[in-house]
Design a protein that fits this description.
315 residues, mainly alpha, N-utilizing Substance Protein B Homolog, Chain A, 2 domains, 15 helices
Length: 315
């Protein structure tokens, strides 16, 4: 489910903690890495369950209105479009969603006020009002609304984010991405689908192998890559350099050496982009300069082997 950049970020975060703690084995840190990835997958399901919990709250409000002593005409004949949304119905019937709830429970039952306030916020949104009053009543209209509800309303509902932080420390950096994956899932649903396809923890076996090998090769070769970085940092005091930069460069070197099918330029650009978000303003210049020198040595020693045209080019 997570893309390669976020998998690289996961490796960086776990290795940083691994080196800082000092007394954690590589095996235990690897378990922590995969636990972190599994928590991201949990967040994917929690967004789906949030949609269903809001729908369930709406059902409750409709029943409450009907059961008043003197219900209004609108309460007796409510607009059922939202609670009958065909896309949400497919999630309700999803075996994967049912299995997740059976194994993990539904955390939203502990955040009833959040669900209530979010529902009221949705009622006031133009997206909801336009959907409820539209003439078109189709599966495609339901699908567009479910996607827009996430992208335009739920994504901007600030009170929800402290609940995520409360539930898991792993979700701070990936909430936006995971939400986009739920939107992608919704957009991929077809009316004729008997069962909907939900995302797994990894896109495929290659991604699982990628993150496992990247972590292990970075950790096992930590001393060698650190020495190589120090050797080519003559104009820098390595001990004063942000430790995050060192970790990023070690992972970059591990990827360049170990993954023959990933172009040099891709690897370097990925870690420069990650550095923009997780390190200092000067990190890009430092990382780019040191990696360039280290690569020259690795290439001269025949340690950089890329299988395919254009994979070695870093110009």
């Amino acid at each position: 489910m997570l893309n390669r950049r976020l998998l690289r970020v996961k490796v960086m975060q776990v290795l940083y903690a691994h080196y800082k703690n000092g007394d954690t084995s590589i095996q235990n840190s690897e378990k922590e890495l995969f636990h972190s990835i599994s928590k991201s997958h949990d967040l994917y399901f929690l967004y789906i369950l949030l949609l269903l919990e809001i729908r369930e709250y709406a059902v409750g409000r409709i029943e409450f209105g009907k059961n008043k002593k003197m219900p209004s005409e609108a309460e007796l004949n409510p607009n059922m479009r939202f609670v009958n949304n065909r896309v949400l119905a497919k999630f309700i019937d999803s075996e994967a969603v049912v299995k997740f709830v059976n194994n993990n429970g539904n955390n939203w039952v502990n955040y009833k006020d959040i669900v209530k306030n979010l529902y009221n916020h949705i009622l006031e949104s133009t997206q909801y009002q336009d959907y409820m009053n539209a003439e078109e009543d189709s599966f495609e209209a339901d699908k567009k609304f479910a996607a827009r509800l996430l992208e335009k309303v739920i994504a901007y509902f600030e009170p929800i984010y402290p609940t995520f932080e409360e539930q898991s420390i792993y979700w701070n950096d990936e909430v936006e991405f995971v939400l986009s994956m739920v939107v992608k899932t919704i957009k991929g649903i077809n009316e004729g689908d008997e069962s909907i396809s939900l995302m797994g923890q990894f896109k495929d076996d290659d991604d699982e192998d990628f993150v496992k090998r990247l972590f292990r090769k970075s950790a096992v070769n930590h001393s060698d890559y650190h020495a190589l970085i120090k050797k080519h940092s003559k104009n820098w005091d390595v001990e004063r350099v942000a430790f995050m930069d060192i970790v990023l460069m070690e992972i970059a070197l591990a990827e360049i050496v170990e993954f023959t099918n990933i172009p040099l330029k891709v690897s370097i650009n990925e870690y420069l982009e990650i550095a923009k978000h997780y390190s200092t303003d000067k990190s890009n210049v430092f990382i780019n300069g040191i990696l360039d020198k280290a690569l020259q040595e690795l290439e001269a020693d025949g340690k950089v082997k890329k299988a395919g045209r254009g994979l070695i080019d870093n110009k």
